[in-house]
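Full entry
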Amino acid sequence: MSRLSLRLRLVVAGAAAVIAALVLAAFALSALFAAHIERLAAAELSVQLDHLIAGLERDPATGALITTAAPADPRFNLPFAGRYWQFDPPGALPQRSRSLWDEALPLPIDDLSDGAEHVHLVVGPKGGALLAVERMVTLPPGMGGDQLRVAVAMDAVDLTAARAEFVRDMAPYLAAMALVLIAAGWMQVSFGLRPLADLGRRVVTIRAGCETRLGDDIPAEIRPLGEEIDALLSQREAELQRARNRAGDLAHGLKTPLQALIGEAARLRAAGQSGSADAIDDITGTMQRHVERELTRARIAAGAGRGRADLADSVGQILRVLRRAPAGEALGWQLDLPGELAVAADPADLTEALGALLENATRHALSRVTISARQEGTRIRLILSDDGSGIPPARIAALVERGARADSRGHGLGLTIASDILTAMGGQMAFGDAGPGLRIDIDLPAA
């Protein structure tokens, strides 16, 4: 259950609650119906008891107490047919319906007042349950003035069958009600979780750089979560700002020693020690490049992936600069860039990353550089290729490593910085053989 969605968890829990409630309701309604039909049956038996008592009289010939108005239901005259009556006159033979045959109703010991009526469940002649209604009757003085218990009974199986039929009739309606309530619960959960979906979309917009905060126009129940996320974003921005400041302080702190080393190299070269001066120049150049790389990383840590950059405009700005250089002016540039492509990135970061890659292509190309792009769903695929001498496959994987060199004409630091920027904005790049030349496949997030 822990791996299910929140929506499904709520719907499953709601469906279980609905089913449990309807099952309990079915039991309760069945019990109420059973009590109701038992009261109706007892009322019917009471009417039959009235008829039986109204027909009591003395037999003129024998003086025995008999009834001349037995209930008209034919089942009282068929053996064990499910309807029974009996009364036991004092000092005389008991009188019973033909349906009891040689059996008797096992009425419980009961203290009845004159005219009082009690309802009992007793065991019938065949072992089944009977619903019995009994009444204590005091005969008039002309009939002896005796008291006797008069009882009428019916099989309880009829009541049980009626209850079962009621449950069967009720089941389809309960099932339909369960489906309606579960569907209503699903809609309620969907409506209730809509603010969470909206919150997720806002987080996506923050990640894409379109927004900086969730804001407070969210439901009160999830507002504390939104406030905590906004506080976390503020804390992250503050930490990144401190990191950028420390990187800037480090760069400024190294600037003076580096300038001193450059001056020392110039003095050594003036003194005729050109070998030592070149070594110092190499060291200071490496240090400057690494400082520049760390400053770039600190700058893009918070801003990469935020904003919206037009790919064609960024490439156009880079080409306007490269074409002014002798190497870029001598090349043929083949462009296939749809004007509507937009990257989810800061325009300056995208320009810096692509500038490093295109500058590398300009430096190694012989006569042509090709730039093409297309959108694939939520991603943009950009391909840069040149017709230079290319790079051995064994060297391709090492291109973006710290300080890696493609050949003696350059270093790989620019490619490393470009890789850092693309990764920070949610993109990636891969190198391949353009046959001849180098091909760079760049995957970028679309805005």
